Structures
1.
Amino acid sequence: MLSSLSPHLPIIQVVLPLIAAPICVIFRRTGVAWLIALVVSWLSFGISIVLLEQVISNGPISYLLGSWPTPWGIEYRVDILSAFVMLIVTSIGAIVMIFAPNSVHMEIPPDRTYLFYTMYLLTFTGLLGITITGDAFNLFVFLEISSLSSYVLISLGAERNALTAALRYLILGTVGATFYIIGVGLMYQMTGTLNITDLAERLPEVASTKTILVAIGFITVGIGLKLGLFPLHVWLPNAYAYAPSVVTVFLAATATKVAVYMMLRVYFSIFGTKMFSALPIDELLLILGLIAILSMSAVAIYQSNAKRLLAYSSVAQVGYMVIGISMVTTTGLTATILHLFNHAMIKCALFLVLAAVFYRIKSVKIEDMAGLGKAMPYTMAAFIVAGFSLLGVPLTVGFISKWYLILGALEKGWWPVAGLIVVSSLLAVIYFWKIIEIAYFKPRPEGAAEISEVPLNMLLPIWVMVGSNVYFGMNTDLTVSAAMSAAKSLIGGAP
């Protein structure tokens, strides 16, 4: 039975959550919807592990829908990069679903909780589809599935500002998707194909045409909006701040990472290193990335809401990934792919802590977190360890990412860039210390209600993610080897 299903795992990975979503609507019961989402998330995680093992052992997997040969039919293609990103998305989803019930019950009205799990599964479907499809238009379809369901997830927040944040994200997300599909349409006009592998073969013949130059510009803006690239990030802080806590955790750890994957896939799998290097896009990305890591880290220092603080930090972290892309080297792309994986674990852990804090004190304002170091010792200890990882302290995953990024900068002779990366990390110390100071060095207000640790089903996922930050910071065999293999395949053997 299992052996007969193995060849069809790429399509099962997408179909499984897609079918599960309407089943949640049919039952309309919170417990049943959560159980379905939990089972599907863990099954998808298992499938991701199997696919990654198959790719490492046997090379890329090509799955033809309806047995139609490419480029006539739609191809699902799993290589080392897509399998690696798929593992990130599914592992985060599996952990978040264990944490979810208590938090969702408190923040979302009972009559709408089944909608949360439905929209989560649709977002899950879209993100997995983006990582697995080998078709540029099909990528747009999955992008819209994930985006539309994300808008609904954000709007489920208890505050009225959640609706405003969702509307802003909807408008800008629609603009981004429109720009992307215009770029894809222009490429189709010039090549007559939508298959990513076929596009890569045909584009060099028309690479110098104005149509293709305009196409890459449209696609860059479209994906830039989706991943929160400075200065196209204006939707992100409010979306993270006002969405339900579990939604913030999931989107912060997966959505922007999948958008970075899209950028890597388009730039290097479709356009290729030579075309990408021939345009000034790498210089533009470098400038925007440097501005992001400095300005957004500085803005984070002045935030009074911990979720907004981490949201601006996320924009800065996207800047690090973009800087790695701009290097157009194996080391630079390795740093980007590593940070894509590592930052997902870091932000998942940090936002899980804030979700636990909100569960207890109904607030994530920094001033309201006074005395939590003693009242919630295990939760806040997790925040410290995950924060150290964000800063890039040795023996954590954050150190590994920044180490490779600085190595990439030094290989290019970009000493000032390496220096600015260090400066940005020092700025992160300031905003991280703000929360630590309040939590550990200021007492709980007089008359404040007594609080205790969160339940074990919330605390355990937090520490699983914190443990992952330390484990993969010390044992880098899987992450570094996978990231380096993916970088080499993208760069085409360039140094």
Note: The chain has a mean pLDDT of 85.
2.
Amino acid sequence: MPQLLLASTSPYRRELLARLRLPFAVAAPGVGEEHRAGESPADRALRLATAKARAVGERHPGALVIGSDQVAACGGEVLDKPGDAARSRAQLERLSGHGADFYTACVVLRLEPALHLAHVDTTTVVFRALCAAEIGRYVEAERPFDCAGGFKAEALGIALFECIESRDPTALIGLPLIWLAGALRSAGCALP
């Protein structure tokens, strides 16, 4: 089996990939995540996932490299990682009573011999109507500053929703494992 590298510094993606019980290493891609005018959220996620995989792949051309990126959008507005409590509260106020789409792109790339598999998973999260006190308590308890939308669905954030619509529940956390397992199998990895 070729060396498997995760092109990400995300602890969430590292924990998800560990579920597949394949040996892997982590490499920081060092890719900027700038917006491009007119780019759809899904296209942005795929562009960034590909750029991350390519950046690491160029340093390790024979390795299988996994790149992933997630872009959240509500009513056409992209929701970046909030970074602090005030922005987390603002994002959750914006999402209260609305739906948001989370586009999670995943790329499996090997430069030599060439392999490029790509996928974008769309997860829709519908938030219940949230009052300011609920939002404040949630942000204080979970501090989701590094998560698009200002919540963690894998933890207490699940209490903020009416429903989640997804083909792959791991995609919302940051890595669509159902698709990824199939892609890795097709690349020669032994998975059950």
Note: The longest helix spans residues 41-59.
3.
Amino acid sequence: MKRSERLVNITKYLLARPHVLTSLPYFAENYGAAKSSISEDLGILKRTLAADEDGILETVAGAAGGVRYIPFMGEDKARAYVKRLVNEVQQPDRILPGGFLYLSDVLGSPYHLQQIGKLISTHYAYSNVDYVMTIETKGIALAQAVSRYLNVPFVTVRHRSRVTEGATLSVNYVASASDHVEKMELANRMLQENSNVLIVDDFIKGGGTLSGMEQLVKEFHCETVGKCILCEAYYPHQQQVSDYLALVSISQIDQQNKTIHAQPGNFLEQTDFNKFEK
């Protein structure tokens, strides 16, 4: 196999298995090449990813070591994408009765899900996440996109139990939109005890749903390692949660004049993009 062909194959293999450690002997045996040649190939790939700020090829030394691909978005690309996302969110035809926003096109777009999934996973690339959690229904595609890049399972919290999921554990929470007490639940077998959970959702106003999911994580004797939201909206009352990241922050939705005022959220400023080796 020519080096160019081998490089393509190795790249495809690693990109399909983010965060998975693969030994150099595996590549050497698979491609019938010397370890020194494989090391040179991986060096080329590592430099290319770093130059494009499109991912990190991490080398682990030792007998049990190897290489793994860490999906990681560079700061320039991240800021450019969030700017585009803000512009799309501000389109006046997104305003729905009641001051809600139409975001289903964003959450159904392969392009946006790919970008959002990689961007969120960039912040949590080294956070030892075991599960990604969301609540039905809008957040499901978002959680799946993030779990794809972190290469961990995602779990869906439901408002009502499903007979196909067996026994469930439930918590009550105060829904911010209605100030009513509601219930959410998760199948008992979905989370392993002492796991680290990343909570993601599409939209936050008062934070009731986010607070409920955090409480559910505690009931499973697990730890919440992060909370990340696609869009946050200004809420005149006290929010139930504050320590979360948001890609887009909406300060005003004017139904009468059909205008939306949005800007980048706190995600970019709280993310360390300096992981690339120059």
Note: The first strand starts at residue 56 and ends at 60.
